[in-house]
Amino acid sequence: MSEMKMLVALQLLLYFVICSCDTKCATYYTESNNNGKTLLVTKNMVAKDNVKGGDKVFKVNVESRCLFFTDKSVYDGGDYTVNDTTSIVQCCCEFYSSDYERFLNRHQLNSINQSLKEEVKRRCIPIRNRKVNTFVTATEVQLKEICGSKNIIDCKSKNSFTLHNIQMLNNSNYIDETINITNSPIVVTCNSKLPVHFVCFNQTDQNFNNYTTC
Predict the structure, then answer these.
(1) Residues 112, 213, 136, CA angle at the centre, nearest 5°?
(2) HEC states along 27-65?
């Protein structure tokens, strides 16, 4: 390949990398801005926008895999008519290319660098039908080992893990003042020998002992 073709190829690659960084997160409408304002995000980023004092958000369109925050509430992907007076709006999106990456984003925890409430927001873990989110303190190697080499869908871990269970309030905000920390083996759903879904731990399922260690 000539130097010119190589340069063009590199420029095209750089263009697509840059263009793929900004993802539409949500469009919100206020009393003073009926045309709406769109928030863009990148991975592990929370977009923020100050709202004019006393202004109300009356409508918001949230993209799939994204969350939109006002001072009062959190909105999952969808279109909403709201009536929220807020000083700031925030938006985030969950990025993953496989069920395994989604599992790691929602459940793996190496260390706690900030409040778990903020960790949930940074990772943009969805809130719909999710009253509790469980973080597992483990490495990727430890989590992969749970699935073993057998062709079994739901596998129970041989070892116990430190689990952080984050409760969700009625307004869809997570809290971290009353973190429930426990040590327990866990059960995960496996696909192609990789964990893709957190099933339970021994305090949440009366049939826990019936699961197989893979």
Answers:
(1) 10
(2) EEEECCEEEEEEEEECCCCCEEEECCCCCEEEEEEEEEE
CA dist 117 and 169 (Å) reads 11
Q: What is the mean pLDDT of each run of 10 residues along the chain (214 residues)?
A: 49 41 89 91 88 87 94 90 91 94 94 74 82 90 92 91 82 59 93 94 84 92
Q: How far is 145 from 164, CA to CA, in rounded Å?
A: 20
CA pair distance 82, 79, nearest whole angstrom: 10
Instruction: Say whether domain 99-213 belongs to CATH 3.10.130.10.
Output: yes
Pairing of strands 47-50, 56-69: unpaired
Domain 3-93 classification at class level: mainly beta
Q: Quote the CA–CA distance of 130 and 158 in Å, as a whole number.
A: 26
Question: What is the model's pTM?
Answer: 0.80
Task: Report how far Cα 11 is from the mean position of its chain's Cα atoms.
Answer: 32
Residue 150 gets the label, from left (phi > 0), alpha (psi -120 to 50) or beta, of beta
Sorted by where each begins, the domain ranges of the chain are 3-93, 99-213
Which helix (H) or strand (E) element contains residue 100?
Answer: helix 99-107
Residue with tokens 């599992």: 103
